[in-house]
Amino acid sequence: MDQEKQSAIVSGMRWVSTWARQRKTHTMLIIVGCMLLLTLATLGYDGVRVLRDRGKLVVYSLDVGQGDALFVRFPNATTMLIDSGPDGSVVEQLGSVLPFWERHIDTIVLTHPQADHVGGLPSVFERYSIGRVVMTGVLHTTPEYLELLQQIRDTRTPTTIVDHPFVETVGSVRLEYLWPRTSIAKRSVPELNNTSIILRMVYGDTSFLFTGDAESVVEDALFASRQKLEATVLKIGHHGSDTSTSQAFLDAVHPEFAMISVGRKNKFGHPSRRILRRLARAGVEVHRTDKEGRIRFVSDGTRVTQ
């Protein structure tokens, strides 16, 4: 157990004890309260951190194996899940970053409906109520995607189709939907990776760029459009494949940190050594789920820390 966790547990136990003495509560209740706090702090520690992180932007790259799943808690406590990985293991990950009593996610963003991004969403729909789903509406026959579409219909969950660049705000955070630029709803396309929703999230002087599996052809189009791409944290495209993160794109984003969501000893050889070398030459601090498990970044609007 690390020192930070020990400190949080001890502080909590002291609070329980003081609260109980002030109210002349029975000793057994103090013991039960301390045991409950110890359990919550040990098993759901990231959930306990929610209280400490109030008023900050918190971004997790969840450890879902070979796939993408990112969870965002905004300063106003609104929540967002970007993709879900390949299977229901995302539910366990969410249980570690959400308080046990929280059973609602405000927004789900499905960047594109390949199995390693959409596979866990049917399980998420079964576990949580969903405020809305942001998606492209592209045609695809992945069974998990078809199940998700049926769940959206059955629950009458509102959807937002990304068919052009637009901006939203969530409290003090600016959300810039950069891609796709045209409608692909109800269309079949040859390369799903390049239909990925690309989202830039800006909070004060800090920013995050989420790129799904978009490849260099999309990166080049964004770069050519002179769209502002700079970000403090870059979610590396396509799990670190060398089809993404071109040198020109990396120069335009100029990130301080990079996060790579990738499975341990995956059969694709992700992340590419070429991309890792490119990031190293650029002085980017790289964090990988296959090496570190769940990754966490926190922004107070001035700087990003872990």
Question: Descriptors for this entry?
Answer:
Metallo-beta-lactamase, Chain A, 2 domains, eight-stranded mixed beta sheet, seven-stranded mixed beta sheet, 15 strands, globular
Topology of this protein?
Blueprint: H1 3-22, H2 27-43, H3 45-52, E1 57-61, E2 70-73, E3 79-82, H4 89-97, E4 104-109, H5 115-118, H6 121-127, E5 129-135, H7 143-155, E6 159-161, E7 166-170, E8 173-179, E9 198-203, E10 206-210, H8 216-224, E11 233-235, H9 247-253, E12 257-260, H10 273-281, E13 285-288, H11 289-292, E14 295-299, E15 304-305
Parallel strand pairs: 3-4, 4-5, 5-6, 10-11, 11-12, 12-13
Antiparallel strand pairs: 1-2, 1-14, 2-3, 7-8, 8-9, 9-10, 14-15
Helix pairs in contact: 1-2, 2-3
CATH level-3 fold name of the largest domain: Metallo-beta-lactamase, Chain A
* Spatial separation of the terminal alpha carbons: 18 Å
Mean model confidence by pLDDT? 89
Q: Tell me about the largest β-sheet.
A: 8 strands, mixed
Spell out the helices and strands N to C: HHHEEEHEHHEHEEEEEHEHEHEHEE
Count of domain modules: 2
> What is the name of the CATH class of the largest domain?
Alpha Beta
Number of helices: 11
